[in-house]
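Q: I'm a student working through a structural biology exercise. My instructor gave each of us a protein and asked us to get a predicted structure, then write a short paragraph describing it. Mine is Adenosylcobinamide-GDP ribazoletransferase. I'm not confident about reading structure output yet, so if you can add a plain explanation after the tokens, that would really help. Here is the sequence I was given:
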Amino acid sequence: MRLFLVALQFLTRLPVRLGRFEPAWLNDCVRHFPLVGALVGAVGAGALVGAAQFWPAWVAAVLALVATVLLTGGFHEDGLADTFDALGGVVSRDKALVIMKDSRLGSYGALALVLSLLLRAALLAVLATRPLAGAVAALLASHALARGAAVGVMVSLPYGGDVEHAKAKPLALAVAPGNFAMAIGWCALLLAALTVAGVDVAKLVGAVLSATFVALLMRQWLKRRLGGYTGDGLGATEQLAEIAVLLAFTASI
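A: Happy to help. First, here is the predicted structure for Adenosylcobinamide-GDP ribazoletransferase. I'll explain a few features afterward.
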């Protein structure tokens, strides 16, 4: 429970208060990232279902996005923009790391952020026109699996930036495989619950494969360009995996 609260404090804007803090907790709390993701997805699902009762599908979709962005403070969106600003052009590793730390938004980052928001809004609008149980399942799965994908990248690569200047130094240290195993366990538990609830197994399999593909792709990209992961790279992984899972749920196959 303590590590879950640390993960909740790190990934969201919820006012979590802990009596004390140990740096090692931040490293170990990654095991609960998918669980926090499921919570964020549940908030988005609640906003989508509630808004769909009063407004058109596209309005409900945007309001669902607003709810999740408010809850996370745009944490992962910031990582997506910084990653594409740094790696969108042809620059050296050192230059890319400098760009990632720059608070200004460049053209690559702006394009990635706008296109990501548009695509997610469009996909949620499609889901809002279908039975809303499917939309709820898609939001829960996309947020949980996307954060699981980020943990997978983290556990399979060394830190690619300057550890001394990392914003969250404990996350720049090696993540124990056991933490990744527990993160996968949370994802498996959610998928099992969705299966019992009657969600199409083919959609769930497609969602898992899509998130895995993004994780492998991002792992290769970050390894080639930076020699490892960064916090921004993990944020980009989460955003792209989220889109991939929503694409799997909305695909006509």
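A: Here are two points you could use in your paragraph. Residues 203 and 249 are 6 Å apart (CA to CA). DSSP finds eleven helices and no strands in the chain. It's a good idea to check both against the output above yourself.
Q: Great, thank you!
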